C-alpha cells in the first residue's frame, strides 16, 4: 500500500520509522519547511525531514497544504495518508486524494482534548490516564471516527515531554497496526463518544505560574508546560525559567510567591502549601540547581516571585 506520511516534530519520527519497518511503500513525506533554530537562528530541517532524508524518501515541504502541495500529493498517488503532528490543516481537496483517506495519530483519548496540545492540557488538568487514538481525518477538528485506541498512565511527576515521548513510540505501533488493518480490509472505525474537551496550542503565558493558585495546580501547570513553552515566573520584572517543582505539604507558612531556604531546599509559597524549586534559569544565565542559585543571591529574605 502506497503511503503518504505527514509530520514535522520529533514525536512524529517513530511513526515514520514504524511504517517503513512494517514494509509500507512510503511514497512521499509531507513536512513543514526548514525553520530558524537557536540563538543564531540557523535554518534547520524538521526532525521528520531529517529522518526522511536519511531514509532516502521524497519530501514535500509545505508550511500549509495549499494548491501547490495538493498537486504534489496527488502526483505521489498515495492509497492512504498517515498524519502525526504535521502542524497544519488538511483541506478537503487533499483529504479526497487517497482512496483510504487520511489516518491521524492523535495523542489523547478522543473526544477528550481535541486540538494541538492534548498531552500538555491533559497534564495540566490532572488526568490520571491519557492515551492515543488513530482516527479518520475529516473537515472538523479531530472529530472523525476512531480505528484504534491505547491508554497510558500519567505519573505524578510526568512532564508533558516525557509523556509525549512514551506515547510517540506506543502510538507508532498503533498507527502501523491501523494501516495494516486498512490494507487487509479488516479495519472498522467507530464514532467518537463521550465528553468533548479542547486543547488549544500553548502560549508563553500558559507557562506563567500564579503563586496564588494551590500548589497542586502549580505543579501540574509546570509539568504540562515542560519542555515548551516552559514554566516561568517574574523576579524584579524579569522572566525566570523554572523546571517542574516538587510539592512540599509540610510547609504552610510561606506567603504566595515568597521564597525561603529550608535545609538544602529552596521553597516558594503558594495559595496552599509550599513547593520546592528544582532548577532555575535567571535571565541571561544558564539553568542551574535551585540551591546553587540561592547561594549566589546570599539571602532570600524579601525575595518574591510574581
Q: Can you describe this structure?
A:
The protein has eight helices and 17 strands. The chain is α+β, with helices and mostly antiparallel strands. The protein has a seven-stranded mixed β-sheet with strand order 5-2-1-6-7-8-9, with helices on both faces. Strands 10-11-16-17 form a four-stranded antiparallel β-sheet.
The count of helical stretches stands at 8
- Which regions have little confidence, pLDDT < 50, spanning 5+ residues? none
Mean pLDDT: 95
Order of helices and strands: EHEEEHEHEHEHEEHHEEEEEEEEH
User: In angstroms, what separates the terminal alpha carbons?
Assistant: 55 Å
Q: Roughly how many Å is the radius of gyration?
A: 22 Å
Subunit organisation of the chains: single chain
* Most strands sheet: 7 strands, mixed
Helical residue percent band: 25-40%
Strand content: 25-35%
Strand numbers in spatial order across the main sheet: 5-2-1-6-7-8-9
Number of strands: 17
Class by helix and strand content? alpha+beta
The coarse silhouette is elongated
What is the gist of this entry?
This protein has 306 residues and is α+β, with helices and mostly antiparallel strands. The protein has helices at residues 13-21, 47-54, 67-76, 92-95, 118-125, 160-183, 215-224, 290-297, and strands at residues 2-7, 25-31, 35-37, 42-44, 59-61, 80-84, 102-106, 129-136, 146-153, 231-235, 238-242, 246-248, 259-262, 265-268, 274-276, 279-281, 288-289.
Write the layout of secondary structure elements.
Elements: E1 2-7, H1 13-21, E2 25-31, E3 35-37, E4 42-44, H2 47-54, E5 59-61, H3 67-76, E6 80-84, H4 92-95, E7 102-106, H5 118-125, E8 129-136, E9 146-153, H6 160-183, H7 215-224, E10 231-235, E11 238-242, E12 246-248, E13 259-262, E14 265-268, E15 274-276, E16 279-281, E17 288-289, H8 290-297
Parallel strand pairs: 1-2, 1-6, 2-5, 6-7
Antiparallel strand pairs: 3-4, 7-8, 8-9, 10-11, 11-16, 12-15, 13-14, 14-15, 16-17
Helix pairs in contact: 1-6, 5-6, 5-7
